[in-house]
Write a sequence for this structure.
């Protein structure tokens, strides 16, 4: 359940970044930049989630790495698709 909430939070955060890209100018380059800025921010949040799982929940790094990959990849894939679409426009 926690993993699903983190993934949904990532998708919402991507939407917030794209909303700010719209507010920054609404042009495809601004939206592309916003989506590009999302990826490193989401990586930091995902690694922080791994750290919490290891230090607070008692999981090992080996147990948390597959979770990190899923949590990072699911919101990143729509971001990469958005970057690709906005770069083509």
């Amino acid at each position: 359940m926690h993993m699903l909430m983190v993934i949904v939070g990532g998708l919402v955060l991507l939407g917030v970044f794209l909303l700010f890209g719209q507010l920054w100018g609404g042009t495809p380059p601004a939206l592309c930049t916003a989506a590009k800025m999302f990826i490193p921010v989401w990586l930091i949040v995902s690694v922080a989630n791994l750290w919490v799982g290891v230090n607070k929940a008692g999981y090992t790094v080996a147990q948390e790495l597959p979770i990190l990959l899923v949590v990072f990849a699911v919101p990143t894939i729509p971001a990469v698709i958005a970057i690709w679409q906005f770069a083509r426009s």
The mean pLDDT is 96.
